[in-house]
Structure formats: C-alpha cells, structure tokens
Amino acid sequence: MKSNKSAVRYATALLELAIEHNKVELIESDILQLLAVANDAHDFQIFLNSPLINIDKKIAVIKQIFKDFNQTTIDFLSLVTNNGRESVMLDIAKQFMSQLKDKDEEYVKALKK
Q1: Is the pLDDT of residue 106 over 80?
Q2: Residue whose C-alpha is closest to residue 35's, from 57, 66, 5, 58
Q3: Among 62, 71, 83, 91, which is disulfide-ready with 7 (CB 3.0 to 4.6 Å)?
C-alpha cells in the first residue's frame, strides 16, 4: 500500500511538472517507452529492484538506455532513483498514464459544456 501511495504522489508531481512546462506530450511519449522497455525486458525490472546495484550505477544505466528522453523525464527518473524509489518506477509510470487519461477526460467534458 505504501508503494502505491508514493507512486501516486510521484506520478502527480510528474504530471504537474509536465503541464507546468508544457511538455505533456514529450513526457507521455517517454513514459510509454519506459513501460514498453519494462514490458519487453524483464531484466530491467530486476535491475531496478536489485539492492546490489548502487544508485549511481542505476542512474547511469537509465541515462544510457533512455538517452533520447526529454531532460525533464531523465531528471525525474534520476530523482526517483536517488530517493530510493526505483522499485516503484513502473508503478509511477502506470499511475502517470492513468492520471493523464483522467485529465484528458476532464478536458473533453469541459469542452462539451
């Protein structure tokens, strides 16, 4: 339960940051790619969860794998890792997509009024 709460909080912060900096589409694309990599490579989740790999190495690998990501996304993933929450990174990504979908639905409803 605790990891779910932190995933929701981090996802909310990322969405607010994306909106504030007008980078929603760029960050959404990055998050979708992150989820695709995790889905295609089970080793990536094992890597994130490994206590044997230090934080600096995890950040370096994340930056290498996702070198084409927007800098805001890279900074966010680095922050998550520095804070020791890399094990919920994929939950954060899923929550971000869910919250973004909810925002989109609210926007469409507002337009129809």
Answers
A1: no
A2: 66
A3: 91
Domain residue spans of the chain: 2-112
Q: Is the pLDDT of residue 104 over 90?
A: no
Q: What is the DSSP letter of 86?
A: G
Residue 3 and residue 94 in contact, taking contact as beta carbons nearer than 8 Å: no
d(Cα 20, Cα 2) in Å, to the nearest integer? 27
Fold of 2-112: Peroxidase; domain 1 (1.10.520)
Cβ–Cβ under 8 Å, residues 92 and 14: yes
CA-to-CA distance for 10 and 49, rounded, in angstroms?
18
Whole-prediction pTM value? 0.87
